[in-house]
Amino acid sequence: MTDIQNGNAGAPEKKKTVLSAVQPSGNLTLGNYFGSLSRFGEFTEMFDCYYCVADLHSITVRQVPAELRRHTYEVYALYIACGLDPKENVLFVQSHVHEHAELGWILDCYTMFGELSRMTQFKDKSAKHADNVNAGLFTYPALMAADILLYQADYVPVGADQKQHVEIARDIATRFNGAYTPTFTVPEAYIPKEGAKIMSLQEPTKKMSKSDKNENASIYILDSRDDIIRKFKRAVTDSDTCVRVGEGKDGINNLITIYSCCTGKSAEEVECEFDGRGYGEFKLAVGEVCADKLSPVKDKFDELMADKASLGALMKEGAEHASYRASRTLSKVKRKIGFVEI
Ligand code: TYM
After folding, report:
1. Strand pairing partners for 189?
2. Is 298 among the catalytic positions?
3. Using an 8 Å Cβ cutoff, are 83 and 91 in contact?
């Protein structure tokens, strides 16, 4: 019996697919690094990996054109600087692959007003940008579902704040599969145990965000060593002096998480290491391990940004690869819906 006659018997198991994306909507933070970028490399060998610079998403909030262009190159270069080999991973810019916008529209028609109204990110962003509550901000999750479903992604590595968006993508996929025949892989969010939600250094009950106006609240991946150390020294903590995880100690809990992420040590090991030493000494140590962690990324980033033409060529290649896979899914979707093919 040949492999074709008996299905897949004897064929090597098909690799599963990973997809994730980052918006080029500001300078990337330590939250973006630990919640997403720093983990992407671990999937390269075992999975087919797609990583996208989500520029279509970023215009749901007004962007200065020159800054959007710069941030798009920067996020792309940071993917590589954080360890992704563009030959082994498909790295692309969302607006270069028209299938995203096209499937995004189609999925709008399979997404309910009520479910979009419940999205926390929509509520937060519409409160923050009350003068620009546009339709794109509202339908954002359907476009994000398109990003994921076009590649038939099995896993979506993201920080905790994106869990709700991956869940709605699952619901949309299940709804579409049920209305026709199985078309989309139903994806799963893959959230790290440590670093899924890095908090602001100034308001540690809020997540660290690239759109925070207070620069001291965030560590940016590209910050200088001096800036990193200075920001940690100023980090808001509490009136206790013991470096210990505890309720109501959001600032210290966050610093312990960051120290753990930078060193690979558990929270208990960190507590032991700083037993009997004060907050001042601890903050300095967090700054130092963090600066050490980010320094090679920054060096590689500078090297890549010095040659924009090569980055452009890589973007083109990535878009071609992504488009090949995306167009296959989109054709299938159009056929199922009943669109006429020519
Ligand atoms: P974005 O650009 O806000 O963030 C990129 C990634 O960083 C994670 N993240 C954090 N993780 C830990 N602590 C933080 N403080 C922190 N802040 C951000 C986010 O969870 C995310 O993983 N909608 C997405 C972009 C997107 C996407 C997709 C993601 C568009 N299409 C398809 C996955 C799949 C966003 O706004 O991420």
Report:
1. 156
2. no
3. no
